Every structure is written in structure tokens, then in C-alpha cells.
Amino acid sequence: MMKKQDLRTIYKEKRKELTFEELKKLQENIYQQIYVLDISKVKTAHIFLTLDKFKEIDTEPIINYFRRKSIQIVVSKCNFEDHTLSHFYFEENTKLELNKYGVPEPVNAKQVEETIIDLVFVPLLISDENNYRVGYGKGFYDRFLAKCRKDCKKIGLNFFKPISKIVDINVFDIALNNVIYPKE
Hints:
This protein has about 180 residues and is of the alpha/beta class. The chain is built from four helices and eleven strands; from the N terminus they run ααβαββββββββαββ.
């Protein structure tokens, strides 16, 4: 049982150590699990855009899969002043530009409210068996998820099996409905 800061350090390092081949295999396993999800009620899905420098899962195949299913994709822009996210439709013609932190963000997109989102894929470093997560520590996603509808599904994507418990969960932490990680 560990605290978020220690887990953040450990799992950033573990992720950094993954080889290209390992990453591809882990991602493929996660994609296969996503492709069998019941998304019949999903009209709008929020997906994070991959940060290659942190070896995050490549979300492009997920975005393409959802588009083929006629599901609207929403992506975010970060406000680093107040650690909030604003959300935009991500159409096939939406231009992306890297912000000063190297995060891809939409440029010419229509803004949307959190309440239209039916499903959110949440980035994380590690989660626990209660579906609480450790992210990068700025609280962007906790603030965002707090504004989503109660019935919005929140699914974490992770390369590592959940640990038993994160000890320093607080009132602002929001448990996910599910965490998808590579199964044997």
C-alpha cells in the first residue's frame, strides 16, 4: 500500500522501461478489450490524445474505431492556470497543435459541455482494485470527471495490473467505472 507520489514515480519509471515491442503487445491487448465493449448507448466519447514522451497508449486506433461506429469524439485543451480542461469535438478535419508542454490540442474545433459526454477514457499511471487512479498529479481529470453526468462511463486505460490500494485517496478523487489493462 503506497501513496500517490511514490506510485507516480515508480510507474512513470516502469512505463519508461517498456520496449517498443512490449508497448505494441500491451496496446493490442487493450484494443481487443475495447472493441468488445457494449457501446450501443454511446453517442459521444471523450478520448485523451497520446503523449508519446510519456509512452501513453496510442489512442488513434480507438478514435478511428469509434468514428467507424459513428460516435462523436471529444478531446481537451488544458488550462494550466487553474488546472481545468475545456472540451472540443475532434472531427477528421480538426487541426492539432502542440501546446508549450508538448500536449496535442485542437485548434479549429467547436467547444462542448461535459454533460454531453457518455464515455470518458481516462489516462493514468496506475489504479487500485477500487478503481481509483494515480495520474500525473495536477487534478485535471478529477475536476473534469466531477462535471460529467452521473451515468457517464469512466474507463481507465493502463498497461499495468491494478495494485491493491492507494492509501491517500481524498474527497476530490473520483473512482472509475472500470480499468482496462492487458489480461493474459
